[in-house]
Amino acid sequence: MYLFVLTTTKVRFTIIRVDLSRLDGFEWDAGNTAKVTARMPCGIAESAFLGTPLVFVDATHSAQEPRWALLNRVAPRHVFLVFTVRRRRIRILSARFMHAKEVKKYEKIIDATEA
């Protein structure tokens, strides 16, 4: 399975494929489980990695470890989450459903990348 990482400048989009088959699943513990389940079930957060999610490097919050923001549609809702990779496992740090304005921006990016 591949993850498509979208890097942006003001006008251009660059899509990079990342091979997720080299990772060993998800890392859940009391810290991130409580934070994620306050907003959505862990299964929905995990399923956001299926298909072709949009992933942005979160440079602002990556000082201590690389972090990424992921956007994807998990029927019938749209999901926004932040994750990192630790010891070959995906650790979801934060997850929530997107607001209407975010959904519009997401759909616009999807349309632009599919054109």
SSE topology string:
EEHHEEEEH
Radius of gyration: 14 Å
* Tally of separate domains: 1
Largest sheet: 6 strands, mixed
How many DSSP-defined strands?
A: 6
Structure description:
It is globular, with a radius of gyration of 14 Å. Strands 2-1-3-4-5-6 form a six-stranded mixed β-sheet. Strand 1 (2-8) and strand 2 (13-19) form a beta hairpin. The relative contact order is 0.20. It has one domain. It has helices at 30-37, 42-47, 100-114, and strands spanning 2-8, 13-19, 54-57, 68-74, 77-86, 89-97. It has three helices and six strands, in the order E-E-H-H-E-E-E-E-H. Helix content is 25%, strand content 38%. With 115 residues, the chain is α+β, with helices and mostly antiparallel strands.
Question: What's the arrangement of secondary structure elements?
Answer:
Layout: E1 2-8, E2 13-19, H1 30-37, H2 42-47, E3 54-57, E4 68-74, E5 77-86, E6 89-97, H3 100-114
Parallel strand pairs: 1-3
Antiparallel strand pairs: 1-2, 3-4, 4-5, 5-6
Question: In summary, what is this structure?
Answer:
With 115 residues, the chain is an alpha+beta fold. It has helices at residues 30-37, 42-47, 100-114, and strands at 2-8, 13-19, 54-57, 68-74, 77-86, 89-97.
